[in-house]
């Protein structure tokens, strides 16, 4: 659908909370459509730069794909720069920490071509998108030199890196990691106009960097859900009937009454080991894990050692993924480091009860959709078992309390309209100059980002040559994982797991 820019700006104004004033004359002038080549629409021209895009299987990729399609449906011209844009535009390489994803280094001549394109909004999806940061810096310098107000420069942040550092760094390495983090990303507030996060509680330490005397330059990029794909009716689909039959057979074989489902990547920070460890306290429950990742072998070993019923279903997509939610008696997401938890949204759209750890992001995003007693104290297995049991009791008695209200869930169309409102605010938040500190910091930051990009590329090549592993100096797969410290309970080592297995065999 193509809309003219006047009606478009008016509709966006209504979406922004508290926006009682029209655009300033300067902002209104910048929002006016510019001459475009034939065949293009009259909406805003938007560049989205993201290393996570479909068909990658993760929440960021799904979100960016929906944003791009939704903005086009609202009349915007959207270009997406990503690792598969082609060898003429970017140097693409595998993500050394996640072989299911890719990273990129933008070619200099592609950067020049972007700078000569008349974009209204440049939206960079973070974190670790070094090419995106170079694009932001280039546009900011161009705006300063030419004294222009376009394009509006927007950053959206989708990862709690500070929490990862807190939970996985050891001793002095934690402070080194913090210093490197702020050295690498501290430039972002100086080269962008606005930062967006999935919730207000996402990465608060980073968002505070965007604050200034006239108020924060921060907003929320609302998350939608496709209620036609994720719905209770999915249980009646072809795959739904397959999952129902598989569930009945599995519960009968394991002599259990309830099926818990968890969907997500199997990596240490997702806390799936905590969910497996609580199963002995839930004697009537079996667990399905949908997803894959580097932590799967250790989780399989842990399930065998504890002798609990856990079925690993691997990656699922399409109708198989949509319908697996609908057959669950309860959906559980044990992660403490989410920025929103899109899988929780999908479970709610499937009208499945949910139980979550009581962390700020989940409390903000789902506090009105989930009963307060369905949240458990983080890292407390007793409290987790109680919260899960409460929700299963409601399920068993068909208690309407706590059932998700589908009308309260936002669609992706709603999310994209809200995103346009954030773009409008970015026009109003524009900064036209660098501070003196910014000019001093800039060459240092350039050196750090270029060195980091080269390091990422070299590390990815080494891992690829080693078949995806760098365990040459490690005894086992368990010791190749980041060690959990501080508030996280450490997973037993490979040797401990082996001794527990032998003891279990001798007992039997």
From TrEMBL:
InterPro entries in the record: Glyco_trans_1, Glycosyltransferase_grp1
Alphabetized UniProt keyword annotations: Glycosyltransferase, Membrane, Transferase, Transmembrane, Transmembrane helix
UniProt entry tagged with the keyword Translocase: no
All residue ranges annotated as the Glycosyl transferase family domain in the record: 252-369
Listed transmembrane segments: 175-192, 436-459
Region annotated Disordered, chain positions: 20-42
GO molecular function: glycosyltransferase activity
Top-level taxonomic group: Eukaryota
UniProt xrefs under PANTHER family: SULFOQUINOVOSYL TRANSFERASE SQD2
Record's protein name: Glycosyl transferase family 1 domain-containing protein
Species this chain originates from: Cyclostephanos tholiformis
């Amino acid at each position: 659908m193509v809309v003219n820019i006047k009606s478009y700006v008016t509709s966006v104004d209504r979406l922004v909370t508290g926006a009682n004033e029209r655009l300033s004359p300067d902002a209104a002038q910048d929002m006016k459509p510019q001459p475009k080549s034939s065949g293009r629409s009259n909406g805003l021209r938007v560049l989205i730069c993201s290393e996570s895009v479909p068909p990658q299987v993760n929440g960021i990729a799904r979100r960016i794909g929906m944003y791009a399609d939704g903005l086009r449906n609202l009349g915007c011209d959207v270009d997406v720069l990503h690792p598969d844009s082609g060898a003429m535009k970017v140097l693409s390489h595998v993500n050394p920490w996640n072989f299911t994803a890719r990273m990129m280094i933008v070619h200099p001549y592609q950067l020049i071509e972007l700078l000569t394109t008349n974009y209204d909004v440049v939206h960079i999806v973070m974190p670790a998108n070094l090419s995106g940061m170079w694009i932001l810096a280039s546009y900011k310098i161009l705006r300063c030199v030419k004294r222009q107000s376009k394009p509006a420069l927007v950053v959206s942040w989708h990862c709690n890196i500070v929490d990862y550092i807190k939970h996985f760094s050891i001793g002095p390495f934690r402070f080194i990691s913090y210093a490197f983090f702020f050295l690498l990303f501290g430039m972002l507030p100086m080269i962008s106009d606005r930062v967006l996060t999935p919730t207000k509680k996402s990465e608060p330490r980073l968002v505070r960097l965007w604050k200034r005397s006239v108020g924060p330059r921060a907003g929320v990029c609302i998350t939608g859900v496709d209620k036609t794909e994720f719905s209770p009716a999915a249980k009646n689909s072809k795959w739904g009937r397959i999952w129902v039959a598989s569930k009945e057979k599995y519960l009968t074989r394991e002599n259990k009454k309830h099926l818990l489902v968890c969907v997500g990547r199997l990596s240490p920070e997702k806390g799936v080991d905590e969910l497996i460890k609580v199963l002995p306290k839930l004697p009537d429950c079996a667990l399905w894990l949908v997803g894959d990742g580097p932590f799967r072998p250790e989780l399989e070993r842990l399930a065998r050692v504890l002798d609990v019923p856990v079925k690993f279903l691997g990656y699922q997509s399409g109708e198989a993924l949509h319908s697996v939610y609908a057959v669950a008696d309860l959906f559980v997401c044990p992660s403490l480091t989410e920025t929103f938890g899109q899988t929780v949204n999908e479970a709610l759209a499937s009208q499945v009860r949910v139980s979550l750890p009581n962390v700020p992001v989940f409390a903000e995003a789902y506090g009105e959709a989930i009963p307060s007693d369905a949240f458990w104290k983080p890292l407390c297995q007793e409290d987790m078992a109680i919260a899960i049991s409460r929700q299963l009791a409601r399920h068993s008695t068909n208690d309407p309390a706590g059932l998700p209200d589908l009308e309260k869930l936002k669609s992706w169309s709603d999310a994209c309209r809200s995103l346009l409102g954030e773009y409008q605010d970015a026009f109003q938040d524009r900064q036209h100059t660098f501070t003196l500190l910014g000019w001093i910091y800039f060459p240092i930051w350039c050196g750090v980002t270029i060195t980091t990009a080269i390091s990422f590329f070299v590390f990815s090549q080494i891992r690829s040559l080693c078949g995806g592993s760098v365990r040459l100096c490690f005894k086992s797969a368990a010791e190749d994982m980041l060690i959990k410290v501080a508030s996280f309970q450490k997973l037993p080592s490979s040797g401990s797991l082996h001794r527990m297995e032998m003891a279990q065999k001798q007992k039997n």
